[in-house]
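Predict the structure of uridine/cytidine kinase.
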Amino acid sequence: MDSFYKVLDEGQQALAARSDYNFDHPDAFDFELLVSVLRKLKKGKSVKVPVYDFTTHSRRREWKTVYGANVIVFEGILAFANKELLKLLDMKVFVDTDSDIRLVRRLQRDIMERGRDIVGVIKQYHKFVKPAFEQYIEPSVQVADIVVPRGGENSVALDLIVQHVHSQLEKVRGWRRAGSWVRRGLLTALHPVSLSTAPLCDSRQTRVGKQGWGSTLLVL
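Done. Here is the predicted structure for uridine/cytidine kinase.
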C-alpha cells in the first residue's frame, strides 16, 4: 500500500522534511489509483505500480510491473479505511503486534532505511502514528475476517489462512493440485518477512493456473 502515497506539493514536501506531514491518515493515499490497479489485478491483468521514495517523499519515474495472479496478497495498515477497496477484498486479515514491537520496528526502519533522525521519528509517532492507530487502524479489526495475534510468528494462524485459500481455490476453480503451490507461495509471502512492510504484490506473489481467470484477494 505504501506504493500509493499521493504526490506531495512543495508545501507538503516542506512539512514532510520537518516530520510535520501526516502519512498515517487515509487522505495521504491515492485510493482511486489503488482501487483501479487492484481491479485489474483481480481480472488477471498486468499493471504498472508506482514506486514511492521515502527519502525524497516522491514517486520515482520508473514504475514497476506487477502481473495478475490467482492469489493476490495485498498489505497496508489502512487497507480497511476505504469502502471501495473493502468491496474488492475476498479475505480480510488483521495482523496484530505488540505496541512496543511496532515502535521499535518503526525506529529501525525510519532511521536505517529512510535516513531519519530519532527525534523526528518520535515526534511523528506521537503526533500522527499513535493517534492514527487509535482512530483508524485499531477499530478496523471489526471488519476483519481473521485476527492474527503475534504477527508473522503465529505459524498456526498462517497455516489456517493457507488452508482457507486452498479450499476456496478448489471450490471455485476445481484446482485439486493447487494446494502445495499455494501453501509454499503464501508461507513465503507471509512468514519470513515483516507483514507491516511487505510491498504490494511483489516478487512473492503466488501464481496458480492460467493468468486471466480472476483472482482471490487476500489482505493483511
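Strands lie at 47-49, 52-53, 58-59, 64-66, 71-74, 91-95, 146-148, 216-219.
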